[in-house]
Design brief:
- This protein is of the alpha+beta class.
- The chain contains two helices and four strands, in the order ααββββ.
- It has a four-stranded antiparallel sheet.
């Protein structure tokens, strides 16, 4: 994989898949919450990965998970984005 956009998109999708494994009950206690870390993309590029967890509409409802993968602070706008929703049990 060498195309920059495909590389960043693949990493964002992988990170989102992992982020969506967190349970609503565990996240509800800390939302809004986010973190960032530096790592390497599937093609070996140095990247920053940001994850955020926010209430989708209102506290106590669905949690919106957003992931952004980019090649350093000056390239945040060029990063790949992925998002998903974590719902309370039974919904």
């Amino acid at each position: 994989m060498s195309d920059l956009k495909d590389d960043l998109a693949a990493m964002a999708a992988d990170e989102l898949e992992r982020a969506l494994t967190l349970k609503w009950r565990e996240l509800a206690a800390v939302v809004p919450w986010g973190d960032a870390y530096d790592g390497f993309s599937p093609a070996g590029r140095q990247v920053t990965v940001e994850r955020s967890y926010l209430w989708s509409e209102a506290p106590g409802g669905d949690i919106l998970c957003e992931v952004v993968v980019y090649g350093g602070q000056s390239r945040w706008d060029e990063g790949a984005r992925a998002g998903g929703v974590i719902r309370p049990a039974g919904r």
